């Protein structure tokens, strides 16, 4: 490792530039700008280049032909966001990876871009510095000998406090709204000193978890779930192998029971997971045996049976699960099988949002099959083909999250303007409970505060013999550290009961998380109870209660 490090340093000596920097002040606001189209000219660097600014200004025209930066005096623990424009020569297209090499560890991916010759593509990524000296370099992922040009490079550090502040800003503007409750008498006169009590009845942001058949008949678990979550997804019970283990032997008994349970508890958001799964391992064994017309018939009857039974029941369908990694159906039915699935699903259940769903998109950038640009181009392909593709599912099965990378990937996905969900959040069971909890909190805060995330699902269906990767509680529903984190955030992301008096203008103001409210106003002997719906908006929401 050491040898490689020095070799790299040495090899790049002619091209590299050395950077040194000490402390930084308050720092700028986070810049969420991102591009996913290839441009004739690169845009200006974010943050004027940040701590790479000196270099950029030395090269007017912003073009720096250098595949590596030697970074000295990085602040350990600080979050760094990196971006640059990339163009290649010597190949039509290439997946270019930004890697960070430190003394101590193997190099890791901190950003990727699908680059082209003839135009500039935007790479955005980031990392948490673990050492003060590192080398950041760009490389073709297949390590071919192609020329990589970089322009408008930028590296901007943020402290944890600054990072948290960006999250809080976004939460205030996207998940909350200011509300002014005006109390007046029958003549329209403002009433000072009226007592206003506000109670949040429901939350607008869908936050839920997977459940499994283990919840059936387990009343304490059911209560525990319903007290916390407003969204649910069935872990395995809807999958083809579960509903049709043998050809023609359809059995929807478990999903039916789960659906009834969730409905009876008033949980509004239920994801349908999934119609097809491209991984042959999870394809029913009898389907794995089919090809050609027989397969097409099986596929048609699956989609027909599932969607007619549950039309209108599920808000989402994961139509083609993990298609960035596997291609069971496309390899047998042809390259437009996926488009066909989406089209048929749309026809069968026009009101459901149809999702692609995959792993290793926000979790890492080291998986070549599922880099953000690969995902974007598959989505574009479908959309350009005229198919309705309306949701981006990110499984979010993390080991150690790289939060700056996660944010920059979300920034890029957001350029498509589609709803994005974290669909299966958990932290690897290879880590101890405390570490899982710490990482889970990082991921959930990043997800909840990113303006493009529309909902979050945990992959934590309770199983007596252990959950998939991570449980929230033990079998007696006592919180594990991860459950403590979830309960803490659920509390933090709801409006505490608010009580106060109207001021001299007859109004009472408060900051509300989006959702449904009960508002009770009392003046003298009179009490009026109203409901209030707080939906997203940039402006203060005004409510008038005559009393
Ligand atoms: C790195 O930082 C240390 C302490 O902040 C400082 O003394 C040193 O001069 C810096 N090194 C360089 C090369 O700037
Ligand atoms: C290398 O990693 C080990 C273990 O993670 C750590 O104790 C050590 O301080 C690190 N060395 C440097 C130079 O950062
Ligand atoms: C359907 O599934 C349920 C639950 O697994 C099982 O109890 C039942 O026997 C099945 N029905 C048939 C006809 O196989
Ligand atoms: C697959 O097909 C072969 C040959 O027709 C048959 O012997 C086998 O039982 C099939 N396997 C399954 C799981 O249906
Ligand atoms: C990437 O996809 C190809 C084709 O589907 C597959 O053969 C390969 O195993 C995948 N790699 C990973 C890391 O999933
Ligand atoms: C799939 O592709 C074939 C040939 O390219 C075309 O005839 C067919 O209409 C396509 N099907 C769909 C659903 O787009």
UniProtKB/TrEMBL annotation:
Which residues, by range, are in coiled-coil regions? none
Q: Where is the signal peptide?
A: 1-22
Q: Mind listing the UniProt keywords for this protein, alphabetically?
A: Carbohydrate metabolism, Hydrolase, Polysaccharide degradation, Signal
Q: Which residues form the GH10 domain?
A: 192-489
Task: Provide a Gene Ontology MF annotation, just one.
Answer: endo-1,4-beta-xylanase activity
Which BP terms does GO give this entry?
Answer: xylan catabolic process
Family per record: Belongs to the glycosyl hydrolase 10 (cellulase F) family.
Q: By what name is this protein known? A: GH10 domain-containing protein
Source organism of this protein record: Amborella trichopoda
Organism lineage reads as: Eukaryota, Viridiplantae, Streptophyta, Embryophyta, Tracheophyta
